[in-house]
Amino acid sequence: MNTVRLNLQVISLDGRSLQVQDVDVVIVRRKEQRFEQGSEVAIFPLHAPTLIRVPVAPLRYQKGGRTEYLVAGGGFVEVKGNQVLVVTPRFEEISPDEPHPSKKAKHRAAQWMREQTEFRKEIVGYLL
Predict the structure, then answer these.
(1) Within-domain flag for 118
(2) Residues in Cβ contact with 119 at an 8 Å cutoff, skipping those fewer than 6 apart
(3) Which pLDDT tens digit goes with each residue over 3-57?
(4) Between the CA of residue 80 and those of 35, 39, 98, 105, what are the distances in Å?
(5) How many domains is the chain built from?
(6) What is the DSSP-derived secondary structure letter of residue 31?
(7) Rounded to an integer, what distance in angstroms lies between the CA atom of residue 52 and that of residue 75?
(8) What is the CATH classification number for the domain harbouring 62?
């Protein structure tokens, strides 16, 4: 039996990349202006072509029954065929050996959001 799987590729502006094949599902949070938190989108094989804007947030995927976590620094997710492409300014893989990888991913995303807010306050002429 030949089952269809996803290929996940993450590319950052600094040239780092990650490629994972045979992924069962990719779950991302989408950025919506109406809602501060946004909502999550689960991308399964044979998903319709989609372009999703993502905030600074954890991203997870399942492969072989294991859930792996990443933190994306915002950006876009493009789904085309069984290819999932994440383009982000920066990302970080959370070690599977971490005792609580989901908490670590949320903590890192919150840290990046604080850094982003502090940077914006330093910009000359920035109005809140």
Answers:
(1) yes
(2) none
(3) 889 999 999 988 889 999 999 999 999 887 665 556 889 999 999 999 999 989 9
(4) 26, 21, 32, 26
(5) 1
(6) P
(7) 9
(8) 2.60.15.10
